[in-house]
């Protein structure tokens, strides 16, 4: 996935930096609000000095509390909440004592710090620290939920990729066995030239299956070239009994689809239409635009499957269920898959999928 360097990063992507930004902004805001409130109520400008000291005290206390809370987050909930409340109460007592002492030093004529002054300072400080603590735990809970959601999404993505890879590698091994047997027969008959040609085509086809990512989308023209390579191999076995034809609209040549999606369809057509018949069969591969989609049709002139129901037809053959699953994994509900026998004989598979001109990153 490409990353835009000018796109702003999420605020909590760097948790440490986010904490310091919030810490500075929060306590600066508290200082401004208390200062404006005091000045609006007729307090002298010197009133800002104890407010500043109180703010610095709260800032420092919450730094220590953050270290303690970070440890408590790893404990059981009962331990976390009990100790957190005790920490807040103790920190508020320290803050209230400092506030009362500063107020007393500023107003020496007023005598020592009274109990009423101490309680008032304690009430204000404990309220502020409880609010800070609630916000600290709320943000950490939010970040934990987000992290778990990201992990779940990552695991789902890995599972989906693994399933796509499994489906992609689930090719019928009969093709490979039959090709190797044909090459072996040609070697025994000392027909080295056709054996070398078949071996070369097989090597190119297998190289394609190994080089391409199993979950990748490839251009239709590349898929067709690979399909022609596969058919060249099979044509050396079946000769004139296998008669493929292609009708690919140039407008859809750059449309993307899962790699080796069409090969099992042609393989089934060879298995059920060409192999059992002496005269063989024609296989037609057609690709054309269908509104915002691409419609791909693979048909043959074989015997079809008689009067079976659509469900039986779709389940017939090794590759059809595989293709249906791969389409669902790649496009969700944005595709159509139809497999049926034609009244005059033969079998037709129609696929419609979104017209993607390039692989999504």
What report would you give on this structure?
The chain has 361 residues and is α+β, with helices and mostly antiparallel strands. Helices cover 62% and strands 12% of the residues. The chain has 10 helices and 7 strands. Helix 6 (192-211) runs antiparallel to helix 7 (220-238). The longest helix has 55 residues, at 115-169.
Largest sheet, in brief, is: 5 strands, mixed
Q: Which strand order spans the largest sheet, edge to edge or round the barrel?
A: 2-4-5-7-6
Mean of residue pLDDT values: 81
* Portion of residues within helices: 55-70%
Low-confidence stretches: 1-7, 307-317
Strand segment tally: 7
Terminal residue distance:
5 Å
Order of helices and strands: HHHHHHEHEEHEEHHEE
Count of helical stretches: 10
Tertiary shape = rod-shaped
Return Rg in Å.
37 Å
Going by helix content, strand content and strand pairing, the class is alpha+beta
Beta-strand share of residues: 5-15%
Main features:
rod-shaped; 10 helices; 361 residues; two-stranded antiparallel ribbon; disordered N terminus; single chain; alpha+beta; 5-stranded mixed β-sheet
